[in-house]
Write a structure and sequence with these properties.
With 113 residues, the protein is mainly beta. The protein is built from one helix and nine strands; from the N terminus they run H-E-E-E-E-E-E-E-E-E. Helices cover 8% and strands 60% of the residues. It comes from Biomphalaria pfeifferi (Bloodfluke planorb).
């Protein structure tokens, strides 16, 4: 995607929390960026595409699915023809988020507060 040094620093130092809840077939994701970016709320159903807006302003398409008990977020950024996924799993108080973009993989461990 081509991040500036400023954006790299923003992502590197980003502290955030989020809440996932379910009401019927609808999942609600609330993200609190702790003042570093505007908070975000997404409501989506499995398999349905929604617009996702990044903290640095681009808009991608997001589709949520579940595979082997893990949530899989599939993103498509049409302006640069980029596709990536984020696979999330929870064990105890730790959520593991694995982001894959082409041959690159990033693993994050997030602790429940």
């Amino acid at each position: 995607m081509g991040f500036s040094e400023e954006k790299i620093a923003l992502y590197r130092e980003l502290v955030y929390s989020f809440t996932i809840s379910k009401d019927g077939d609808t999942y609600k994701i609330e993200i609190d960026f702790k003042g570093k970016a505007p908070n975000a709320v997404y409501e989506l159903q499995l398999g349905q595409e929604v617009d996702y807006k990044s903290i640095d302003g681009y808009t991608a398409k997001l589709t949520l699915t579940v595979e082997d008990g893990k949530s899989v977020e599939s993103y498509y950024y049409g302006d640069k023809d980029l596709k990536w996924t984020v696979t999330r799993s929870v064990e105890g108080n730790v959520m593991t988020a694995v982001t894959k973009l082409a041959d690159t993989e990033l693993t994050q461990k997030l602790n429940k507060a």
